[in-house]
Amino acid sequence: MKKKIFLFIPLVLSCIVLSAQDLKIIALKNEKLGSPIKNFRVSRVKDDRTDTTSVGTIKNGMLGKKNQLINLQNGAANSVSVYLRNNLVQDTAANPIEMHITQFKVEEKGSSGLKSENELTISLAFYRDTAKLFETTGGGFTETTGDATRLIEELIRGTLGNMLQQFDDWWAKNKIYYLAQKTKPVLKVEVSLDQELENPDIISYSPNRPLTLEDFQGKPVETGTTVATTYSIVMLKYSSATTPNNIIYVDVYVLANFSKSKSWCRPHDRNAETLEHEQRHFDISAIKACELVDTLQKFPFSADKFPLELQRIQRVKQDELNHLQDQYDRETMHGNGAAVQEKWNSWVKEKLQSISCFHS
After folding, report:
1. Range(s) of the domain holding residue 73
2. How many separate domains does the chain show?
3. Count of alpha carbons within 13 Å of 6, Cβ hemisphere only?
């Protein structure tokens, strides 16, 4: 007697129409699968096929001229479940995975004299909860001059082992990403001051780099009594990265910047008094930048609302900054009230000394 078995893992989808014939039962042999499953355990085997009464047909009878339906003992789902329970080494603490049989068929491919050829196709889908994670198709060919069911049974067991190992390898690489989606994200926010180093038009605030009259490079407005304008802003930028276990790291940077091209001073007012008044505007921006850093560091951000929460805080602090700058100009009469200007100079100096974000 001559026998051949060929294993393959193709990705094919097909169907077979069965006729009503006597049913031949295949019992899966209790023989341990070679490789243990390390990353999941089969919690349930379910047969999703429309017709579960058989798994195909073989040629039987004298010279293989008779079609005969075949099925696994007690049905495919039950037979595979019992076989895996008795012969597959699994980690009981591993993630539970449902295994769905979406295709299971044996198809007679031809016969010549006493020799018969059969093709086995099995498709399995693996589910976690109600989500399909992975689907694969495998099978192979048998060729024999004897009882085809014996070789088909061996091929079924070999195919199941290969497909289980295939999913085990895939799940080992991908489970952390799937489980992360099921895990509530954790947000970790780091806030710090930053400087703009690439744009020559921008001066980032530093106690060691006071403004000079040469920094006011903008064109003065033709009307009005304002002698100088300092364009200083407090801005935010942030970047984020998510780890496979769903931890979101966010780096928030606060910048207090002065624009040379948007700041200007009239030629006849380019003096020390004007520069001192304008420097206080930049100092006030720096004070509010420090307050913004402190507020952001203490705020309990949520992962799903982080951008909106960040914008809301920035908007509040920007309104406070605008109000303080207007108050400063109003009370000092834009630098023309010497006594009040000196009070503001003292207040700003004390405030800058009391904050730590611009001190190493």
Report:
1. 3-181
2. 2
3. 10
C-alpha–C-alpha distance, residues 311 and 85, integer Å: 56
143 and 220, same domain (yes or no): no
Residue owning tokens 């093709």: 119
The contacts of residue 246 (CB under 8 Å, 6+ apart) are 180, 181, 183, 184, 185, 186
Q: What is the largest CA-CA distance in the chain?
A: 120
d(CA 165, CA 155): 15
Pairing of strands 131-144, 115-128: antiparallel
Nearest to 231 by CA among 253, 266, 202, 210: 202
Give the position of tokens 């080494």. 89
Tell me: the pLDDT tens digits for 80-121? 999 999 999 988 899 999 999 999 999 987 666 567 888 999
Strands 232-242 and 131-144: unpaired
Q: Is the pTM of this model over 0.90?
A: no
- Tokens 């100079």, residue located: 345
Instruction: Choose the final residue of a domain: 181, 204, 229.
Output: 181
Q: How many residues does the chain have?
A: 360
Residue carrying structure tokens 């926010």: 189
The enclosing domain of 138 has a CATH number of 3.40.50
CA distances from 102 to 45, 55, 72, 171 (A): 11, 12, 15, 19
The dihedral region occupied by 40, where left means phi > 0, alpha psi between -120 and 50, and beta the remainder, is beta
Question: What are the tens digits of pLDDT across the range 146-202?
Answer: 788 899 999 999 999 999 999 999 999 988 888 877 778 899 999 999 998 899 999
Angstrom CA distances, 245 to 175, 249, 294, 355, stand at: 10, 12, 29, 37
Report the C-alpha gap between 80 and 73 in whole angstroms.
Answer: 9
